[in-house]
Amino acid sequence: MKKPKKGVYYLSCGRWLDKNAFIKYFEKKVAKTIRKYKLIEKNDKIAVAFSGGKDSLTLLYLLNRIYSSGGQEIIGLSIDEGIPGYRKKILKAAGKFLKQNNIKVKIFTFKKEFGFTLSSKTKKIKKLNLSNCYVCSILKRWLLNKKAKQLGFNVICTAHSLDDEAETILLNFLKGNPELLAKLGPLTGVRRTKEFVQRVKPFYLCSTKEIVLYAKLKKIPIPPKETCICPLRGTTLRVEIREWLIQLEKKHTEVKNAIVNSSLKINPLLKEKYKTLVFKKCKKCGFASSQDLCKACSILKELK
After folding, report:
1. Which domain holds residue 257?
2. The predicted structure's pLDDT at residue 224
3. Spans of the chain, pLDDT less than 50
4. What is the DSSP letter of 190?
5. Number of domains composing the chain
6. Residue 232 phi, psi (nearest 5)
7. Is there a domain that residue 95 lies in?
8. How far is residue 188 from each of residues 1, 58, 266, measured CA to CA in Å?
9. What pLDDT does 4 receive?
10. 217 near 170, Cβ under 8 Å?
11. C-alpha distance from residue 52 to each of 40, 76, 79, 90, 123 (Å)
């Protein structure tokens, strides 16, 4: 039986929140996550991984409001993979809002940094028996880390939501990757290292539903769903897990929350187990790697 609507958001405890109460609730939730897990410190230079989508735009807007007024440097870092009609279109749609709110974003491209676009390498990627998503995620993560280091930022905030984390937990569990499960959590990685700029997730305990509602109430532009679906994305296990969780949560409303909170209890044990892993330095780029070449440099070598 549906509860009679008395506000904009219904809490699981049985209370409705009106517009102002929800905005306050959401902002306090993000601030509490940052404080509890020590995601951002007073003197940090903050970079936000900015895709141009609703989650990253909302995160960049909120963190800019919180930290720029106190004098901390904050900027969005965006990677254009070179997919026709995709990333440039999304970033352009967000441009007016960014300008109105005096939010800075730097854009880097695969073409300039690697000498090719992702679209131009899809046939080669297929021949290597890899997926476009896998190659893209590895190269974007590597490039984001490189640029953040070069620009002097010591923390990268990503807009991963509770929904995203639930998917990733199940994905790594089903693939039998306990060492990757150990790297999850609001503060990523098993230990801090100078080779990587620390990545953090201020939206870790916020659902996608909450992020979307906050964006709508604050009049943050939300790109149409179809423009945010990468045309090179195939059917992956992550997509299947996402669709399964959506259906499951229709019957069990707190299932994603339960997955993430269970992971939070187990995560310290996994981090303790894998914190002694010894990393080499990639012979090509100098970043930490378990092999002579890191995954990004290995992929770049294969794509030449």
Report:
1. 13-303
2. 79
3. 1
4. S
5. 1
6. -95, 0
7. yes
8. 40, 21, 14
9. 56
10. no
11. 22, 10, 10, 6, 27
